[in-house]
């Protein structure tokens, strides 16, 4: 049983790829501007699986999606980054990255591209303040890491993922300037795609979702999709292009959002867009996977390609407010399908890797 008075906490550490151990550390002193939280819930994301199996860059600590209760407040911290008062015991969520405000992209105000975003996350766990990843009993939030109080009506299960999927697609749809009356195509009905469907719907767009898994498309309907295109039924790009032309008076969609991680989705997305459409690339984020591409079609259609990593940190606040407003409308809590204890972390990651669970969640009491 971990309580706020405990002086030690536990961190999951990856010693070599595919091997996890746990180590105990003294709870650190908190610097001015920082806070320490007790992790209440941390979700397993695809990128954690990628780190464990060696597909993503090696990192000793894992976990970046969590909701925690404030245990220690650093000097000068009396509010979150939206000005809401914070106290010991409050539930908060933080961006999984920090912004340095000094690097080239930060100087342009493009904080999502900060060159030092993972400066804390890549630290060795035996380096203070130890708790750099969300898979542990505690998590240290640095002064350059934005954090926000979780609205009372938003359950932990929904809040824990807000800093990843929901903030990411919210930012993506805003960057593509989605407006009321637009038609938005979401390629892929995983966690990102479901969140995107809900946000696009709330903006007032008509939402079309493409996926190849029936159960995911069923979920997409619950998350606001007006039309779902099943890739088993519409089994060629040509059939899907025709289906989308039929749904858009022969024009194509205004915005397409790629959250599949599948390279050829880019080619297909450009075919689905109207002339002058906007394409948001988020899911394809592993370098080295190449495809044949038709740049002439892209130019002729004057497609604006918007590729994104991370988000401006205040989008986490928007995401939490979005959840608070729509929590009864969309089944956010149902995105998580299995809970594990911290000791069972390896199982949680392994079962996620094998797709035995869609979204695993680590619950710490
Ligand atoms: Zn994530
Ligand atoms: Zn920076």
What can you see in these coordinates?
The protein has 365 residues and is of the alpha/beta class. The chain has two domains: 8-161 and 336-363, Medium-chain alcohol dehydrogenases, catalytic domain (Quinone Oxidoreductase, Chain A, domain 1, Alpha-Beta Complex); 165-307, 3-Layer(aba) Sandwich (Rossmann fold), CATH 3.40.50.720. It has helices at residues 46-52, 104-107, 156-159, 162-175, 191-203, 214-222, 237-247, 265-272, 295-300, 315-326, 345-353; strands at residues 8-16, 19-26, 35-43, 65-73, 91-94, 138-141, 147-149, 183-187, 206-211, 227-230, 253-258, 273-281, 304-307, 338-340, 360-363. Strands 3, 4, 5, 6, 7, 14 and 15 form a seven-stranded mixed beta sheet that branches. The chain has a six-stranded parallel beta sheet with strand order 10-9-8-11-12-13, with helices on both faces. The chain is globular and about 65 Å long. The model has no long low-confidence stretch (mean pLDDT 94). One zinc ion (ZN) binds next to loops.
Relevant terms:
single chain, 365 residues, alpha/beta, Quinone Oxidoreductase, Chain A, domain 1, Rossmann fold, 7-stranded mixed sheet, 6-stranded parallel sheet, 11 helices, 27% helix, binds zinc ion
| Mean pLDDT rating | 94
Number of β-strand runs: 15
* CATH architecture call of the largest domain: Alpha-Beta Complex
Backbone CA Rg = 21 Å
Query: What count of domains describes the coordinates?
Result: 2
Give, in order, the helices and strands: EEEHEEHEEHHEHEHEHEHEHEHEHE
